[in-house]
UniProtKB/TrEMBL annotation:
Annotated Fatty acid desaturase domain residues: 65-331
A Pfam family that the UniProt record links to this protein: FA_desaturase
GO CC terms in record: membrane
Species this chain originates from: Amycolatopsis arida
Name of the protein described by the UniProt record: Fatty acid desaturase
Amino acid sequence: MTGLQDRLTPEQVEAFGRELDELRQRVVADLGQADVDYIRKLIRTQRGLEVLGRGLLFAGFFPPAWVAGVAALSLSKILDNMEIGHNVMHGQYDWTRIPELSSRRFEWDTLAPAENWRHSHNYVHHTYTNVLAKDRDIGYGVLRMDPDQPWHPYYLGNPVYAALLAVFFQWGVMLHDLEVERLVRGERRWVELREVRARIRRKAARQIGKEYVLFPLLTGPLAPLTLLGNATANLTRNLWAFAIIFCGHFPADVESFTEEETANETRGQWYLRQILGSANITGGPLFHVLSGNLSHQIEHHLFPDLPARRYPRIAAEVRETCERYGLPYHTGPLHRQLASVAKKIVSLALPWTGRRRADRTSLTGDGSRSAA
């Protein structure tokens, strides 16, 4: 963000960080039974939708029942993936000491093994958010999503790779912890990934067996329709998750950083990086629930272990704080954020869309913003 170095001093960065720490502490002090009741009600709703959806597929010979079944199953998978699984596995409910809400015990209804995901997402992504060569969520190892990523002819296929990733998103997340691009470069050895691969095999066998063998067979002659219904529900969840996640990370105005720029980072600088490297999506209450409240990606990156239901309540205060310090607060409706992401995917496929670090401002070790 050009000119930011003129508006934010190192002292202001740390004062900004202290204000966010205080906000976090106020929320933590207020956590209680209402948060537990919310997530338990949501889990009951998700399970009810799954039972309803699978039940309706037994009447799949009647088109409206099949459509309703697929819709209910799709909603169930979206809730399980976004507002329940993602957030529980972030440790947002570990403070309750309730076993079924433990981040270490929870397993979600998707191909990615929870243990692998906790490493690639909770640790790698949230520690190194938007740090080039460290945060592997920048492009997921297959896309060019930042102009500071060196261009290669391979990236001419950027739009095609993005479309395939959207369709098969749960498969991409499942394979993410294999770090295939590092294997190709010789930075990792296949044997080092023995446990990661074993978890992938076990989880994939369970999910594929359940979705495409067991449940279709249970519906007898309707097995092909049930298989199609399950595949459609998975596709719906994949496309939705891809859209929400990419709109929170890759609209035009979000920034990236180098390892050098984030060396010896203070708490205030870490908060600043989350603000600059995230974007929100506007919408109503139901939209926020279905997005897992990742429509409040800024608040999530600032406070990943706070219950996501709290993000809409603190978003106005976070935004007001950013405005007082002259910091950007990227937000917009889904269609605008999607258009911005799509434009970036297409433009970064081309070789002339790179930029020199001197063309942008950067987060320096002393907390100021200056040309690199």
